TrEMBL record:
Residues 275-284 have a biased composition (Basic and acidic residues). It comes from Exidia glandulosa HHB12029. This is Kinase. Belongs to the inositol phosphokinase (IPK) family. InterPro entries: IPK, IPK_sf. The lineage of its organism: Eukaryota, Fungi, Dikarya, Basidiomycota, Agaricomycotina. Keywords: Kinase, Transferase.
């Protein structure tokens, strides 16, 4: 079934990145305004064999969406500032769609925040930002997150101001805020934020495993990524989480499993191809997921080695997750 721009509205669960992301009426897709380099990178992921191991860690790409028949480019090729919304959007799977109460964290990776082609002024400004935040030392910045509050029956949202205000020593506290411990009373009601400790530890184990796989996928890639993130999602509804653990493939099974993202049906549309087709089937609920996002400033750089700043950020994220797990286990002693 084809879709158009009228099928989309503002995404309510966006915790990081630039504004303007929209989701489809059924919630399964998002449309994100993009510049040409990001579109090119998604097409490269689909077609380049060297990125095959990386492909499973990015949202599935369905094509582009444009405002057909609504806005004409003025004569002479000049775009009026009031018409800037004609920038095409890439259409991606909404990875939080199958979650009932998704907790979401956007972790910006890397120690360098400006591209090599940026002006000297911007490089200096972004280097100063990296040094004044956690990015330069750790390769990580907590861009924003939401956690489910069972008492409020709503989300508590922490915006990017928090991530910019903390120092490296505060990062474990930030991870604890994203992975808080809920309690269950005698009647079985869940209170507070997050999950009870046993379920939370299982989720963290899964997140650590996923991040290690992402680390391995990145290990042999020669690339530079500026502004990219790891988007971490886990289920906060206790009943839904327990059911998803039962139905979800184990890590060992998943290693040999050909996902939708890797099947022959995943043919990336050519640039500008319309219309976008909706996914043909509903994905099974998962207890957690991590996907790499935001590739507007990501390029393959053959012969130049890995992006060590991004690799540092991945290692830091793994360390923070391991540290949070240790805190929880120590508290249970």
């Amino acid at each position: 079934m084809a879709i158009d721009e009228n099928d989309f509205s503002a995404l309510k669960s966006q915790v990081g990145g630039h504004p303007g992301v929209q989701n489809s009426s059924d919630g399964s897709l998002i449309a994100k305004p993009c510049l040409h380099p990001e579109l090119e990178f998604y097409q490269e992921i689909a077609s380049n064999p060297s990125l095959a191991h990386f492909k499973r860690f990015v949202p599935k790409f369905y094509g582009t969406l444009k405002l057909h028949g609504k806005i004409e480019t003025p004569a002479g090729g000049e775009v009026d500032p009031g018409h800037l919304n004609i920038v095409p959007s890439i259409v991606l799977e909404n990875i939080s769609h199958t979650f009932l109460k998704p907790a979401i964290l956007d972790v910006k990776l890397g120690t360098v925040l400006a591209e090599e082609t940026a002006s000297d002024e911007k490089k200096a400004r972004m280097d100063r930002t990296a040094r004044e935040t956690t990015s330069h030392e750790t390769g990580v910045r907590l861009t924003g997150f939401q956690v489910y509050n069972h008492d409020k029956q709503d989300y508590d949202v922490i915006d990017k101001k928090y991530g910019k205000s903390i120092k490296p020593d505060d990062l474990p506290d930030g991870m604890a805020k994203f992975l808080p411990v809920a309690t269950i009373d005698d009647d079985g009601a869940v209170h507070g934020q997050g999950l009870p400790t046993p379920l939370l530890v299982r989720v963290i184990d899964g997140l650590i495993s996923r991040m290690r796989k992402i680390e391995r996928a990145f290990h042999g890639l020669e690339f530079r990524m500026v502004g990219g993130s790891a988007l971490i999602v886990y289920e906060s509804d206790v009943d839904a989480l327990e059911k998803s653990f039962i139905s979800y493939l184990s890590e060992e099974e998943e290693e040999g499993y050909v996902s939708d993202d890797e099947s022959d049906e995943d043919e990336t549309p050519e640039e500008g191809e319309e219309p976008v087709e909706k996914p043909s089937k509903q994905a099974d609920p998962k207890p957690y997921v991590i996907k790499m996002i935001d590739f507007a400033h990501t390029h393959l750089t053959p012969g130049r080695g890995r992006d060590e700043g991004v690799m540092l950020g991945i290692k830091t994220t793994i360390s923070l997750l391991e540290g949070r797990k240790a805190q929880l286990l120590d508290a249970e002693k």
